[in-house]
Design a protein that fits this description.
The protein has one domain. The strands form two sheets. A two-stranded antiparallel ribbon has the order 1-2. Strands 3-4 form a two-stranded antiparallel sheet. Helix 1 packs across helix 3. Helix content is 55%, strand content 7%.
């Protein structure tokens, strides 16, 4: 089945409960319509690449806050583009949303296959390649945000998996399969004694 047909089928079949659960995980960034589009694109890309849907969505939230027009400037004059900002290139050509998710999920799959013994290392690789994996083996890699707070880039895998669990829990709640409260702290709060964002 061609990719665009698979995306359309996933778009049509996305349950209102699942769409609302994803929207609720990032209400500042998603409307009901955009949540449906992102959910469908992530489901197709996850299926196509044998990756977890929640992890794909989590990476998209972390890398772009679900914005398909993101351009991240990388070392060496390269850029990463699109909703999942996968591997750096010399120019941006993000393509349709489902293509952006597929490129990101394919890049994620490369790292999961390259680091099969450690998903943590694979997710560090997605976030910053072997340079970040090696730097994190030496200790924290602190990045200062515009607001002055510091984030440890070595916690990126925890941020990815925290958001993946959040999305999964919200979907379970939407279907009445989970009644426990959402109280797990975001991993970033462990840096610099906390933070509020």
């Amino acid at each position: 089945m061609p990719l665009i047909v698979a995306w359309y089928v996933a778009l049509v079949l996305a349950s209102p409960a699942d769409v609302e659960a994803l929207r609720a995980s990032a209400p500042t960034y998603l409307t009901t319509d955009t949540a449906r589009e992102h959910l469908a694109a992530a489901r197709v890309a996850a299926f196509w690449t044998r990756t977890r849907e929640g992890l794909v969505l989590s990476v998209a939230w972390h890398e772009s806050r679900y914005q398909s027009n993101v351009v991240s400037h990388e070392p060496g004059g390269l850029v990463s583009c699109g909703v999942m900002t996968p591997e750096p290139t010399t120019r941006c050509d993000p393509g349709a949303l489902v293509i952006q998710y597929l490129r990101g999920a394919e890049h994620l799959r490369v790292w999961l296959d390259a680091e099969p013994a450690s998903e943590h290392s694979a997710l560090l690789g997605y976030a910053g390649g072997y340079r970040l994996i090696n730097a994190c083996a030496q200790g924290p890699v602190l990045l200062t945000r515009k607001d002055g707070h510091q984030d440890d880039a070595c916690l990126t895998p925890e941020v990815f998996t925290w958001r993946e669990r959040l999305i999964g829990r919200l979907i379970k709640l939407a279907h009445g399969r989970d009644r426990s409260p959402l109280q797990e702290a975001h991993p970033r709060f462990r840096v610099n004694g906390g933070g509020n964002g």
